[in-house]
Design brief:
Helix content is 15%, strand content 43%. 32% of the residues are buried. A hairpin with a 3-residue loop joins strand 8 and strand 9 (261-278). It folds into 2 domains: 1-50; 53-479, Porin. It contains 5 helices and 16 strands.
Length: 480
């Protein structure tokens, strides 16, 4: 009887303790739930108050060589450089985004400031972060992006953006750079620019995958005087002694994009384009002159996966055709008083064309091999001064260019690339500006023939004309 009574007390005590424990657990769970809500609010507030940062740091060595038209050569076998990008992003809500990028790009042991004639380019801002400079941080990108849901009351998502736009490393040009494609078509525009864009997503209203239309406007230079101008002009007023403002307007149309087949079309017109004046021997004089306008267009198609599965599902192939058309001012007088008629060696409007093909093949699970070829005609003139090639833009070549590269992902954060670029020029001025001086499209064979026949001016020009160029690059890149 005593044993049964003891067991009853133990059972009663266990039930009582169990009830108490369950009540306590329930109270604790309520407190935990309240804390979760508070922590969530704190985390959300903290995220909205802080820019998210990313680091992209590349160290490279280039071996470059130039073969000149007079038979001489120039180059450097061990050009070492480092490029730092600090990426910024901030989204206070689902409709507004800020993106920015700070940049440093310099040679090892080098501090290339703006000396000589480059000082006259203070109004230009096309390659400030692409050319090797010094160890200061500069703004490469800074823009605000609005994401809308319904344009004109239709099921048509839209965007609007303004600032220092992501206008380099665009579609197709991004493949060798191992980066996502930026806004422009890399075949014809690869240059830093300040401007705006607005895009309509037409896929829902048309039923065509990825169809969209974007308008783009920008400004590539200003003739506003700086504060305390040396000529005594009122600050930020027009300076009539230098070029007009350089402006550009155009559109990008995607007729079809299902993620596997991606097609893009662009057209633009650029106004009041400059030329760097040279002496008879090809030496820069330090002055610029506005020489005319330029139209440009391109059609680019990428097939990202030839088959649905298997090896060829990861193979990329692309083709692109681009066109440019000069619109010279005619006979004009530049700031130095020198008659400067026409553009690229002609007072008439001239058309240039270029075609570009390439493929990217998976070699290993973490490696990609790429091959590219492009050809440009005599009067071909793109805006690709910021292309990431030490010997000048391959896509600007008035002639032929070949490129091969191998990119390998070493770890989640580290990658390496070996790349070889070869450019053979048929005409002069491929990396010049738009006029008859630095951009003159003379046939190199004709200049050499004239020099051989005793033409003194041709003989003076030969040492300044690049006939072919090579660039072998190896880099290690950290991104996270």
């Amino acid at each position: 009887m005593k044993k049964m009574f003891g067991m009853g007390l133990l059972t009663a005590a266990t039930f009582a303790l169990g009830a108490t424990t369950e009540e306590e657990i329930a109270k604790l769970q309520k407190q935990i739930d309240r804390l979760k809500v508070k922590v969530g609010k704190v985390n959300a507030q903290s995220s909205n108050d802080n820019i998210k940062w990313g680091v992209d740091f590349r160290t490279a060595i280039d071996s470059i060589n130039y073969d000149m038209a007079d038979g001489s050569s120039a180059g450097k076998n061990d050009l070492m450089s480092m490029r730092l990008w600090l990426n910024m992003a901030y989204a206070p809500d689902s409709h507004n985004v800020f993106k920015g990028q700070l940049s440093m790009n310099k040679a090892f042991g080098g501090n290339f400031d703006k000396r000589g004639y480059l000082q006259s380019m203070y109004t230009f801002d096309w390659i400030g972060n692409e050319a090797l400079g010094d160890n200061t941080l500069k703004v490469r990108q800074a823009y605000w992006l609005y994401l809308g849901d319904r344009a004109f009351g239709l099921d048509m998502p839209w965007t609007f953006s303004i600032g220092r736009r992501p206008s380099t490393n665009g579609f197709l040009a991004n493949l060798r750079e191992d980066d996502p494609a930026q806004s422009p078509l890399g075949h014809i525009i690869n240059v830093e620019f300040d401007g705006l864009s607005s895009k309509l997503d037409l896929s829902n209203v048309t039923g065509i995958p990825g169809m969209s239309f974007k308008i783009c406007m920008g400004q590539g230079s200003t003739n506003a005087t700086p504060m305390f101008a040396s000529n005594g002009a009122p600050q930020y007023s027009n300076d009539d002694t230098i070029n007009e403002d350089i402006r550009l307007a155009g559109f990008i149309f995607e007729p079809y994009n299902d993620g596997q087949i991606i097609s893009k079309i662009t057209w633009f017109r650029a106004y009041d384009l400059p030329d760097l004046d040279l002496t008879a021997t090809g030496v820069p004089t330090g002055s610029f002159s506005s020489v005319g306008n330029m139209d440009g267009a391109a059609l680019s198609v990428l097939i990202d996966g030839i088959t649905e599965d298997g090896y060829f599902s990861d193979v990329k192939v692309f083709g692109s055709f681009a066109w440019s058309k000069s619109r010279p001012n005619g006979s004009g007088i530049d700031v130095g008083g020198v008659n400067n008629p026409g553009m690229m060696g002609s007072t008439d409007s001239k058309t240039g064309t270029s075609y570009w093909f390439g493929t990217q093949l998976p070699v290993t699970e973490d490696g990609k091999f790429g091959v590219e070829y492009n050809h440009g005609s005599q009067y071909w003139r793109p805006f690709d001064y910021a292309e990431d090639t030490m010997i000048g833009s391959k896509l600007a070549a008035r002639g032929d260019a070949w490129e091969v590269y191998f990119t390998y992902q070493l770890t989640d954060a580290l990658s390496a690339q070996a790349r070889y670029t070869r450019i053979d020029y048929d005409y002069t001025g491929s990396n010049g500006f738009f006029g008859n001086s630095s951009g003159n499209a003379m046939k190199i064979a004709d200049v050499k023939a004239a020099a051989a026949n005793g033409n003194a001016q041709a003989q003076q020009l030969l040492p300044t004309i690049v006939e072919s160029a090579d660039d072998f690059r190896f880099y290690i890149r950290y991104r996270f």
